[in-house]
Write a structure and sequence with these properties.
Blueprint (H helix, E strand, L loop, with lengths): L3 E6 L3 E7 L2 H7 L6 E3 L2 H10 L4 E5 L1 H12 L3 E4 L6 H12 L15 E8 L5 E8 L11 H5 L1 E7 L6 H16 L3 E5 L3 H17 L3 E5 H8 L4 H9 L4 E5 L5 E5 L2 E5 L12 H14 L4 H16 L10 H9 L2
Parallel strand pairs: 1-5, 1-8, 2-6, 3-7, 8-9, 9-10, 10-11
Antiparallel strand pairs: 2-4, 6-7, 11-12, 12-13
Helix pairs in contact: 3-10, 7-8, 8-9, 10-11, 11-12
């Protein structure tokens, strides 16, 4: 029996969330609704221009680990933070929700990274990310015993922007498969797919068992016009693909089997972390032996909770909500 249900690997960030109008987003000069990388100086400039904000530990893969723990699963996380105030806050927040996090604090290099999240009235989020210490993640952070002890090792697509982290991702995937465990990948962002399309295709075909992507990302990955075409391609490349379609729900593809999952109707406040929470619900169900359709329903539940609140981490105990889905 695995020590952990899910181990996640990604950029460790502190999220700084603010509500702002479209004019503020336009003034930033970044792509609306996407994640844009910025340097330390630009991050400081934008932070100074922002109004009152909510600061919370984040990072896509860390949010998924927190979600798995909220559902009642056993989660662990690997990421790089500095030995500074943000690094200590990040570690405390993650451990306080029950996630195993023992990556050493970095005493040299950049400060802990942060992600400025601008939420507009339509609940869309625009992210300006300074990776900081997270960009210096390398193979040295991959704990072989930890990876081998997790039923699923979940990799964040954003991390593919970091040259040293690519080797870390490949090493983690190889360790997981040697231990007869599964590897999951989220494509993370359309622009991330555009930057790394060929490498992502290779990963999905050769190293990934479970793929997470939204409709835009999966059609970009295969350079096709329709969702159905993308489904056809991905069905032959990995064991399971969990593909989200916003308010239209999601589709789980496993070989010739296709499960259409409805979205939970909620008032959308902030879409930050919806995909992270979706992956958390799915992986919790998967590692607890649930049928794929039920995994999809748990995923949809997680996403609905994320978009009905400000911030990416669960504000409620998802294990209680999950009982309405699994019937236990």
């Amino acid at each position: 029996m695995s020590r952990f249900d899910v181990l996640t690997l990604g950029n460790a960030l502190v999220d700084v969330l603010v509500h702002a109008d479209e004019a503020f987003v336009a003034r930033t000069g970044v792509e609306r609704g996407a994640m844009t990388m910025v340097d330390a100086a630009r991050s400081d400039e934008l932070y100074a221009e922002m109004g009152p904000a909510v600061e919370a530990s984040g990072g896509s893969a860390a949010n998924t680990a927190a979600g798995v723990a909220s559902f009642g699963g056993k989660a662990a996380y690997i990421g790089r933070v500095a030995d500074d105030s943000f690094g200590k806050v990040f570690a405390h927040d993650l451990r306080s929700v029950g996630v195993h996090f023992e990556s050493p604090f970095a005493v040299t290099g950049s400060p802990t990274g942060r992600c400025l999240v601008i939420v507009t009235p339509d609940a869309q989020r625009t992210m300006c990310t300074y990776l900081g210490a997270g960009a210096e993640l390398d193979e040295g952070y991959i704990d072989e015993a930890l990876v081998s002890s997790a039923a699923v090792t979940y990799l964040e697509g954003y991390i593919w922007d970091l040259p040293a982290a690519k080797d870390a991702v490949r090493r983690a995937a190889a360790i997981a498969h040697r231990a007869d465990q599964r590897v999951a990948l989220t494509l993370s962002d359309p622009f991330c797919v555009e930057r790394h399309r060929e490498e992502f295709r290779e990963l999905v075909e050769n190293d990934v068992d479970i793929l997470f992507a939204n409709e835009h990302e999966i059609t970009m990955l295969y350079e096709v016009d329709t969702f159905d075409e993308a489904m056809h391609h991905v069905s032959g490349h990995c064991e399971i693909a969990a593909l989200t379609r916003g308010p239209h729900g999601s589709v789980i593809v496993a070989g010739d089997a296709v499960h259409v999952i409805d979205a939970y109707p909620v008032d959308v406040l902030d879409t930050t972390g919806a995909g992270d929470a979706y992956a958390a619900g799915f992986l919790f169900g998967f590692t607890h032996g649930r049928a794929l359709a039920v995994c999809g329903q748990l995923a949809s539940l997680g996403a609905s909770e994320a978009i009905s609140q400000l911030g990416a981490r669960p504000a409620v105990d998802l294990s209680e909500r999950a009982r309405s889905v699994v019937g236990d």
